[in-house]
Design goal:
By secondary structure, the protein is of the alpha+beta class. Helices cover 28% and strands 19% of the residues. One of its GO terms (molecular function) is oxidoreductase activity, acting on paired donors, with incorporation or reduction of molecular oxygen.
Amino acid sequence: MATITSSINSSYDRASEVKAFDETKTGVQGLVNAGIQEIPRIFIHPPQTIPKATVSLDIPVIDLACTDHASTVDKILKASENLGFFQVVNHGIPISIMNEMLQGVRRFHEQDVDVKKKFYTRDPSKAVIHNSNFDLYSTQAANWRDNFFSYMAPSPPSAEELPEVCRDIQIEYSKQVLKLGGLLFRLISEALGLEPNHLGDMDCDKGILSLGHYYPACPQPELTMGATKHTDDGFLTVLLQDEIGGLQILYQNKWIDVPSTPGAIVINIGDLLQASLLISNGKLRSVEHRVVANQIGPRVYAACFFSTNLAPSIKVYGPIKELVSDDNPARYRETTVHDYTKLTFSKGLGVPRLLYLKI
């Protein structure tokens, strides 16, 4: 470990240290298991990017079983316009399945290291991809987390290709999220004054990328981040976070904690939904968010991104014609999901990708 644990004040060859860390195939958890007391230089962020004090603000909690349909639609619109984030309850996914999904993420990351290493790769064609920091070689400062991910819709891998310790729950949870996504896209369509099936007919609800994030306890959380500030590049994100939390959103230049609410699922608007819908006076917001590092851990998150990501595609997304007029012209040029995701991989987390689509 000596080759990748240089102190803050020593000079170092970043490229070599990144390569050495990656080649261990044990990720951040491997560093913690080795008993490090100082984080490697590659994880140290500039002081101005480290978390400052947060302010209190209630994140809307929307009851999807509410019998007042018009009220539900209005609440989703206001939350999506204002914060870009909201939580949903009575969403149809049993709490037992939610808890088991989080446990499945934990089991994957805490299984025998030799088994886990078999999934460690940076090859995007693999059915399951496990690594630490997808943008490790392009970012200026790595984040204190490991993850694994796979495309669970529309063309999921075979059960045999998924990790044994979490395959059953990953398959079941993805099915549940697809149902929830269908409902959310119908409600968002209505909120925008469109036909309920509009976004579904655009295939916004067809693809799911499932991620299992693992944030080990950090010995120096004041120097690094669990996830640097960024927006999500898909249409919509469905997130489970454990009781420790750590997720924050940027609102009016202040950071707001997103609490871990029992039974609730966090929903946030992604870039592609904003690019498809945002016109000059604004509609939905893809908001910057981050995850702080913490001495408490490990923490686990299960995130499902509605997007076809790197799957080959020719379907083009751009401002919805029904929402564009002479008074409200389109502000973004068209793109495919594939090309937009390639931009994410090339630029890394935290780069404001929507700027590249601005007209």
